[in-house]
Amino acid sequence: MVDRLKHYGPLASRAKSKAEYRDIVDEMIAEFKDSHFDFLTDEDQGYYLMDGLASKNPATMPEIGAWFKRGPGGYTVQMVLNGSEAEKAGMMKGDAITFVDGKPFSPVEGLRPDVGKMATIEVERNKHVMEKQVQVDSKPTLDMFLEATKNSVRTIDSHGKKIGYVHLWTQADNRFATTLSSIVYNQLRNTDACILDLRDGFGGRPEGYGDPFFRPGVELDWKFTKSTMHQLFGYQKPLVVLINGGSRSAKEVLSYVFKKSHRATLIGSNTAGNVLGTSPMRITDWAYIEIPIVEVYADGVRLEGKGVAPDISVKEEFDSNGKDLYVERALEFLNGKMKG
Question: Which CATH architecture best describes the domain 141-275+295-339?
Fold first, then answer.
């Protein structure tokens, strides 16, 4: 550690911008090869996620309902949230983003001038360049993910069966556990099976999220003098959980629980293997550092670097037209299971 500080300290002290300082610190952090170890400035989307976890009054972030991954060649779309402006504009996971309003793209400062307005975003997909007109909003990051979770809910009619679907984008606070329970007990209560999508997004805590699916499916009637309230106590219909390399942290623990208990069939690809406990720490008025502080074991197995493997592996996630092949495989599996 001392040798690293001796090497990177002088480089960081000569940095001429937040982005340059962040890149130097990130280069040092990468040498540790641990997940949940990051340095985030207010020019990074992750900063606003950390602020949502650490602050009672989190800062708002310019957003179009997409999350971006920074690489050597610029930014690519890592997630497109359900019901978002990015989804409405037809943006897809894996799209390369080159320009916004004719200027080099960045997901925070690049969008900030367009809050409340339409932005022209240049997208490259399969060597084809296109322009997207996208409305830019501003809100706390966790609110954005909570809205997307609610917007994801749908019922798919498949071979005479009703298959419920919900994408849980993060497990960051109690609002998400309460929302998932409410969705299962209300919008999805009369479905024949359910798909719980744990792909991408972020972790949090695993406790409570599996409760609706492990409780017995009992219908309760609360009879009052002039009315009756109906309540579903649990959901025991067939369940598929979708996972991929973006399923991380607490989502991996939850996936492990579903797999170990045989309550659900996991479909997709191996989870990230990013399973360390952490807590964001503000170090300046413009930066957070995230440091791993807790090892996480499941049945004595260290999930960090290992992750959780699916029961049914699907190599390709989306086809060239954007069709979700993981969902298609889940429907095929559930139809076969219910037919049998």
Answer: Alpha-Beta Complex (3.90)
